[in-house]
């Protein structure tokens, strides 16, 4: 399904565009506050470290998914969010929950699972002060849902595998060879999203 009118597209996928707007606003605030690549600024806006979590700052497990390091980091994540989010929001009717509600639940839960796995890995390896942030875990959760949709014949009409492979490559390519990429968040989010999608589809089509 395609929309030539941007207003219609926003209306069809309101949560996707709301999430993009929130991420951009936080990024602009980071920039004004001293620069999004400044670790101190990132932590001030909600980025997480193991040491912060140990101090009881559990809220960073959620806020860190809205903080980004630099324009490329933000742009790549928002490109993926735009494509994946629009598809997922438009794919479901109003049975059990709307596509928009399903999207926000999946985004937040997948992002949280990605950050929990990041915390566990960094805790076990003694990386107490490594700063972690970004929407990658949440977005990989949406990708996990997209993969789960491949196994549901009635949802395949919404999928364009070539487009998503290209989109994901463009967003992953800048980080290839960069040891600073948080693979734990990606893996945790992807698995979480796939399991959420699979469970939801079972409920949706068995109801």
TrEMBL record:
One protein family per Pfam: Rhomboid
GO terms, biological process: proteolysis
Record has Membrane as a keyword: yes
Main location group: membrane
Domain of life: Bacteria
Entry protein name: Rhomboid family intramembrane serine protease
Location of the protein in the cell: Membrane
GO molecular function: serine-type endopeptidase activity
Cellular component, GO annotation: membrane
Domain Peptidase S54 rhomboid: 55-201
SUPFAM superfamilies reported in the protein's UniProt record: Rhomboid-like
KW Membrane (keyword) present: yes
Topology with respect to the bilayer: Multi-pass membrane protein
Family designation: Belongs to the peptidase S54 family.
Species annotation: Pseudoscardovia radai
Lineage: Bacteria, Bacillati, Actinomycetota, Actinomycetes, Bifidobacteriales
Transmembrane segments: 12-37, 58-84, 96-118, 130-151, 157-176, 183-205
Keyword field: Hydrolase, Membrane, Protease, Transmembrane, Transmembrane helix
């Amino acid at each position: 399904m395609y929309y030539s009118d941007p207003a219609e597209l926003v209306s069809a996928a309101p949560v996707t565009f709301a999430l993009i707007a929130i991420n951009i606003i936080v990024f602009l605030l980071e920039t004004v506050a001293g620069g999004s690549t400044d670790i101190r600024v990132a932590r001030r806006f909600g980025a997480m470290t193991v040491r912060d979590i140990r101090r009881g700052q559990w809220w960073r497990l959620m806020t860190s998914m809205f903080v980004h390091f630099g324009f490329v980091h933000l742009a790549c994540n928002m490109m993926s969010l735009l494509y994946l989010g629009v598809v997922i929001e438009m794919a479901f009717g109003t049975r059990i929950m709307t596509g928009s509600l399903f999207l926000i639940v999946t985004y937040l839960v997948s992002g949280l699972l990605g950050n929990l796995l990041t915390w566990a890995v960094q805790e076990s390896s003694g990386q107490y002060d490594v700063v972690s942030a970004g929407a990658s875990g949440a977005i990989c959760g949406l990708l996990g849902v997209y993969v789960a949709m491949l196994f549901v014949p009635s949802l395949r009409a919404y999928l364009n595998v070539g487009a998503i492979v290209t989109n994901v490559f463009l967003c992953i390519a800048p980080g290839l060879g960069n040891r600073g990429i948080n693979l734990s968040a990606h893996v945790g989010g992807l698995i979480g999203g796939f399991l959420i999608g699979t469970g939801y589809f079972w409920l949706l089509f068995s109801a």
